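Exercise 7. Predict the joint structure of the components listed below.
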Amino acid sequence: QVQLVESGGGVVQPGRSLRLSCAASGFTFSSYGMHWVRQAPGKGLEWVAVIWYDGSNKYYADSVKGRFTISRDNSKNTLYLQMNSLRAEDTAVYYCARDVGRISSGWYPNWYFDLWGRGTLVTVSS
Amino acid sequence: QSALTQPASVSGSPGQSITISCTGTSSDVGGYNYVSWYQQHPGKAPKLMIYDVSNRPSGVSNRFSGSKSGNTASLTISGLQAEDEADYYCSSYTSSSTLEVVFGGGTKLTVL
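Solution:
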């Protein structure tokens, strides 16, 4: 069925790295933009990053810029988030989410998320 | 502090209607029709309820509706049901240089 499944979360020490994965199934992954959205325990949602359907463009929230890298492998139907120099404030459930996008002199995100994974918890603690 | 302002909580009785507001600026809610709303039950992933200000995805009840006036978007739920009790988040594209998407802080809906 149509779904996104995140993996790779866990407990990591401050300053260390972690790579999250998001496996897509049931739809043509290579036709969709993808986002990462996180939610700290008991807090609201925070947008993290977006990648175009073909990986040609990537944008990040300032809070993670220079530390996190979003990427995708369309041959494996998988989205990634490489997280370096992790901080305590990065502790959150990380969701991947799909963006169907629109065609207007090129492909652009729709900036809404029509399919979400269940999330994977990242805890940054010594 | 979240970029979009939502009330922390709202409540209503079964069958009633409630409205959740989401206030931003001309750089986000007021400047673009890229406002969306999400429902989140405890321990679950968010679910898209409204996109592009007022459009409902297939499968979402027509009891849910969205609108926008100036810098404020609104989500209205009519005929409240017990299963509507959840957290609700608004979201918007933003032309801010710091990020591309902003969320509201979330509103806890209690069905009395």
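Discussion. The two ends of chain B are 29 Å apart (CA to CA).
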